[in-house]
Design goal:
The complex is a heterotetramer, with two copies of chain A (393 residues) and two copies of chain C (132 residues). With 393 residues, chain A is an alpha/beta fold. Classes of the chains: A alpha/beta (393), C alpha+beta (132). The structure holds pyridoxal-5'-phosphate (PLP) (2 copies). The site of one pyridoxal-5'-phosphate (PLP) has 14 residues of chain B, from helix 4.
Amino acid sequence: MPEVYLDHYAATAALPEVVEEMKPYFSEKFGNPSSLHGWGDDARKAVEEARARVAALINAEPGEVIFTSGGTEANNLAVKGIAWAARKKGNHVVVSAVEHFSVLHAARTLEKFGMEVTEVPVDSYGMVDPESIKEAITSDTVLVSVMTANGEIGTIQPVQEIAAAAAEKGVGFHTDAVAAAGYIPLDVKTMGADAVSIASDLLYGPKGVGALWVRKGRRLMALLDGGVQEGGRRGGTENVPGIVGMGKAAELAARDLETRAEYLRGMSSELLKWLPESIPRLSVTGHMEKRLPWNASFVVEFIEGEGMLLFLDQKGIAVSSGSACTSRALKGSHVLTACSIPAEIAQGSLLFSFGLDNKPEDVDYVIETLPPIVERLRQMSPLYDKFLKQGGG
Amino acid sequence: MPEVYLDHYAATAALPEVVEEMKPYFSEKFGNPSSLHGWGDDARKAVEEARARVAALINAEPGEVIFTSGGTEANNLAVKGIAWAARKKGNHVVVSAVEHFSVLHAARTLEKFGMEVTEVPVDSYGMVDPESIKEAITSDTVLVSVMTANGEIGTIQPVQEIAAAAAEKGVGFHTDAVAAAGYIPLDVKTMGADAVSIASDLLYGPKGVGALWVRKGRRLMALLDGGVQEGGRRGGTENVPGIVGMGKAAELAARDLETRAEYLRGMSSELLKWLPESIPRLSVTGHMEKRLPWNASFVVEFIEGEGMLLFLDQKGIAVSSGSACTSRALKGSHVLTACSIPAEIAQGSLLFSFGLDNKPEDVDYVIETLPPIVERLRQMSPLYDKFLKQGGG
Amino acid sequence: MVEIAQYSDTVMDHFMNPRNVGEIESADGVGEVGNPVCGDMMTFYIDVDEDERIKDVKFKTFGCGAAIAVSSMVSEMAMGKTLDEALQISRGDVAEQLGGLPENKMHCSNLGADALHKAIEDYKSKKAVKEG
Amino acid sequence: MVEIAQYSDTVMDHFMNPRNVGEIESADGVGEVGNPVCGDMMTFYIDVDEDERIKDVKFKTFGCGAAIAVSSMVSEMAMGKTLDEALQISRGDVAEQLGGLPENKMHCSNLGADALHKAIEDYKSKKAVKEG
Ligand SMILES: Cc1ncc(COP(=O)(O)O)c(C=O)c1O
Ligand SMILES: Cc1ncc(COP(=O)(O)O)c(C=O)c1O
């Protein structure tokens, strides 16, 4: 049976070069970067080299990059850290309705502490209108956070325009680039953001590492209090091997960005084109043009995602879904809801996320494998029954 | 030249078995534990096995263990998470003066948000008196946090008595066991704590992983908002290889606890005995009996720690110091200050932390190497001059 | 810690090869429970013989793997039982027969017994109307 | 990002092999700066010839590697200079001669020039007293 992994948004395999680069930092060059001896020196140099590599991916200054334990921590640090540091200036935060939970729930925590949060809606492609950001900003606003691109539906946001809208009103702007970094060019010198989150895993680096870039001079309250690591903005002994791995992954991602994007786009656009042709009542979610190259996301009517996942797994195909049943919290995707997709249709969500290890044949295999699965589940579905009886089909 | 690493408190080398166990989780079993397919299953099983192993080290239920990015995050989660979850009940927190910064500074952040913090003093051995905890608790107190043992001076606290004092008043009790876990037996069923922090690094596991045990039913506000990973108490894609490594390290630490402790105690007690005999005006810090087996800490009068570290590094010996100049924040150790050691004497702090890779000969090498270094630095010291002129020596 | 979806072999078997999928045209009783908006919806059809025994049962289910497996198991358990016996089938029995269900699926997806009971009630009320 | 202690080769050389360590008994001028409580303390001793030139300089320092290297470098820079020239030696010059100092050590450990200037002032005030 073929093994076709199409869930790179959930997890990627670290590249061999990345693992190779990390290796010595577990047991040989195992020092603590704060230590004043040879072991400490080796670790410190490795961390600073990784910092420079990560900075280069987004054209930032190394001194402005803070390493974290992942995208979630980077987002929490940005949202809470910037809002709290500015809480004497104002108590209002603006986010989009399609942010990742690490931004949305961080904002909800701010609410528990008396801040106000405006969730700006999106259109049916999941796109934020920069005008609506402008309108949401009040004299009390201290932070706008809108993601660079959404991983679930692939939609790339007009961040530059949103940044300009925030800047015009003198408000800090954070963008979660976890799903985008390494796949679309990002340049902090021109994008106008004050803080950018990235994660290692989507770059084929190790899990458990991420980074927050924060523009020099932008005030930030630490989330993990402790020592003065990371300039006092993130305490805790540095995860040296993880950081080294992320550094290597960022270097490779920067080097290969265009070829990777082109390769992934080739496969995803095939699937985006052919799957709707092979399966009736299946539609693409997200924006067709302003779209991450690795993302191919759909909703399939009358059936629910988990069943598709389980049958696909039996055929060696790994994907994910935004359906309620497939989420551990048993809630349907807030992103699909924000795109005005009815709840029962959102239950049939399917997300194919392409990666470097995929081959064009994988698309063929999916196009061959999925239709009978959908058909089988539809045959069991009372909704499909009703649809047919009402003359659909 | 010998290479004598005596800074295991700052960093340890991951054991070969640990690295071996982690390896497949970077690029082969690289799945996301939340994913509903074979790759996800492998990752999920690995994380749950690691959770059981970490739980076993402190005789806890696996379901009560939350993985974090290290000791610092575990402490921040415990202190802020418990205090914030209980903020409607009261707004007072009690900590000891010798806590790690990840507890002390977390408490200071609570202060910024309107909570009150009492720092309970210690005696000259760094020991907390359970009576003083009782006295510090008010009707507004929601949390007491006192570490199991202090890594800088080795002193083991009377946690059971402190836990009893907190329980008597119905107050939650957290203990930071980062420096103690794996070296003294810990049993959450008898110690009476509500939350216990541990870190992987001191167990010869990888950096960037830690865990917080929280008694079932104890309310906790998440610090990293996001997905429902870790039961909704810690969002973010799990650091699977790191967690697997910590699991293995915890398993080995539990298995070998007694032999390790005995072996380390043998070396550290030699140094604690002989160094004061070889160098005048050098004293042991911390408690002589209630002491972590790996710790040998001293202050050397008239000279400053960094100079000793640099000369020792030249001789292949790696240690650390609590002096102001050796800290990145350029502040002297708050632990030594809390033990009423005068600031100019605390500048001469030296911390030897023994590890499994040390040999008894390492002690001899230190005893042979350190005295001429101290002598040389003293010859340069105006303080030593004054001391000699005042008839000391 | 929240338990995550991990299905027993029996659940997987009933999901992959569900028994009694389908519809009974002009069935003696029909029961529908759940709501596609919440993610799970089941329709049960029964035919009943003179001895008040379920002589045929079919179902259609929209929902996750657990929901489908539950429906299949309920249909198997109900087949041939008297209505009174069938009304004794509880959610707990179904989960047990399936070798357990993930904790977070116990409530939302374990609607099969409810749908069956509703079909029985439907049969009874239709009969009452006929006889009344 | 806070710069961490990373010493240049010149700093390490002056730290490991400091020049002019010691004391001058009944020196023409003595200058003491710093405070052991803060972690750095330096005492400079100078002897001055008839042309107001520093003919000998010695120091003792309590403090970190940078403090010792700074003292050594200042002593070398001062040796043979006229007092006026020696008064021109600034903290910046010293750091530059050392090939740079870590940023966080620039302020606290870079007291050597101050101690030298204090010793020169001491010499001058003693001379004024003698001549006055
Ligand atoms: C857009 C976005 N932001 C943040 C995160 C959180 O990253 P992590 O799970 O590495 O903490 C994700 C994870 O998938 C993401 O897609
Ligand atoms: C007692 C204690 N608590 C917490 C920590 C923080 O652990 P980490 O640096 O792994 O975040 C340390 C680190 O040395 C420690 O010694």
